[in-house]
Amino acid sequence: MFIFHKETRLEDLGNGVTRRILAHDGKMMAVEVNFEQGAIGPMHNHPHEQLTYVLSGEFEFTIGDEKHVVTAGDTLYKEPHVMHGCVCLKPGTLLDTFTPVREDFLQ
Which residues form the Cupin type-2 domain (predicted)? Predict the structure, then answer.
């Protein structure tokens, strides 16, 4: 399967956050998420495993009881059902990988 960026759709989630679903099948999904400075990814949890790779920018992330500032090249792992969220300190882009697919993103 090939997914060409120009053929994907950018979704405006509001409050300085946009999302682009890159690729997915029944077992995994890749999603690009762009943040403006000050934008917030509210604390939440879900039954999916999630890897987040910081492509650019600077973010203060909370995962469970831990809080750290991350920058380009850093990777975060979120277990199913663990609370997590972030604040964007410098504009940037995250690459999220989920397993299984986030069906709620496809609706």
Answer: 32-94
